[in-house]
Amino acid sequence: MYKVLIIEDDYRIGSLMKDYFIREKFHVLLKDDGIEGYIAFNSDSFDLVILDVMLPGIDGFEIASRIRKMSNVPIIMVTARSDDEDQIKGYSYKIDDYITKPFNPDILLMKAKILLERVNTNTIENIEQIISTQGLIIDYNKRKVFVDGEHIILEPKQFNILKYLVNNKERVVSREELLNKIWGYDYFGSDRVVDTQIRKLRKNLQHKAYLIKTVFSVGYSFEED
Length: 225
Description:
Blueprint: E1 3-7, H1 11-23, E2 27-31, H2 34-43, E3 48-52, H3 60-68, E4 75-79, H4 84-92, E5 97-100, H5 105-125, E6 130-133, E7 136-139, E8 144-147, E9 150-152, H6 156-167, E10 173-174, H7 175-183, H8 192-205, E11 212-215, E12 219-222
Parallel strand pairs: 1-2, 1-3, 3-4, 4-5
Antiparallel strand pairs: 6-7, 7-8, 8-9, 10-12, 11-12
């Protein structure tokens, strides 16, 4: 059963979308504020995000930009503005589809189902998106991690670090490389932020923390025994 995050500040429209998706057996979380919606996205795992453009707190473009830095979750943008410029801007943030108000909820549902079906097909064809090793399972698409069958919650940075180390396993990854790949090349803070996130990641991995090795004065590596 798919889980959908709807971020829409118009109560009538938001409730209408929520009702339609629930009727089709989706799990739905509705938020009417940009900041609250973004916090909700970081606090759970969703299969689809439906995102209004004009929102209190932070707007939909900014939310889409932040989401794309950490996730490929499908995004449908909903807006009252039909200007080509706005749609082009939305697609520049790598959203997957666009629908303009007023709209037919059945069309929105159809767009969502087609998008999710395509994503699921790609997931099946790319089974390496689910990594399993020594009781640790990492689902890249859903951004979920399990330790001996127990779902553990990781902050976005922790998940991205784990994914990067796994993708580069058996190789030592320097702090500088992690900073550039996870925080971005324009980050100018201390590289000790990496150590802090690694420490939190290990704590969350519980007795599987040993899979992340420290290489003194160099960085970290993911090593399978």
